[in-house]
User: What shape does this take?
Amino acid sequence: GENVEQHPSTLSVQEGDSAVIKCTYSDSASNYFPWYKQELGKGPQLIIDIRSNVGEKKDQRIAVTLNKTAKHFSLHITETQPEDSAVYFCAASMRSNNDMRFGAGTRLTVKP
Amino acid sequence: GAGVSQTPSNKVTEKGKYVELRCDPISGHTALYWYRQSLGQGPEFLIYFQGTGAADDSGLPNDRFFAVRPEGSVSTLKIQRTERGDSAVYLCASRRGTSNSPLHFGNGTRLTVT
Assistant: This one.
C-alpha cells in the first residue's frame, strides 16, 4: 500500500518568514495530493490540493508543488502569520482504490 | 451547509466495555472513511465504505473493531472489549466518491478507556 513520509516534524518560523513542508510517497499510481491543517480539538481541514496532471498550484499565500518523477510534493506558506500555527498533514490518494494515506504531520509555530 | 457530524464528541469507558461511535456524513457523499489518530500522529486509516459496503477494511487492527453503514449514509464504528490502547481520537470523513476529491472531516470522537 501507499506510504507517505513527511518532514520536518516540527517547524518554527518568525512572523513574515516562509515555511516549507515536504512529503514523499511510495506508490507511483497516486494521483491526488491534499494538504490539511488541524487545530487543537478539531478535525483536519483542507487548505489546498493538487492533482497529478499539474506541477504547481497557488492560492494566495499558500502554494503546493509536485514532482511526480521524484514522488515528492511540498507545501509553501509565505508571509506567515501567528494564526498559521497548527499541525499540517500531507496525504496521497490513488484512483485505483480510493485509499488516502496521511503523513505523520508537521507542527508549525509562527512566532510574533 | 452541514459538515460531517460525529457523536459523541467525548467518550470515557471502562476497559472491557463495548462502545459505538457515530458518523453522519455530508449529504450526497457516497464514500465514508474512518481513521484513528493518536496524540502527535497523523490519521491512521481504519476502513472505507463506498455506499453500504466496506470497500477496504484492511486498517482495522483486529476483530474487536467493526463498522457498518446499512443505508449508505450514517456509519457506526463498534469496538468490543475495549482496551486502554484503543484510547485515541476517532475521525470520520466523507467525500463525493471520486479518488481525486478531498475528504471532509468531522471533529472526531475522543475515546478514553480507563
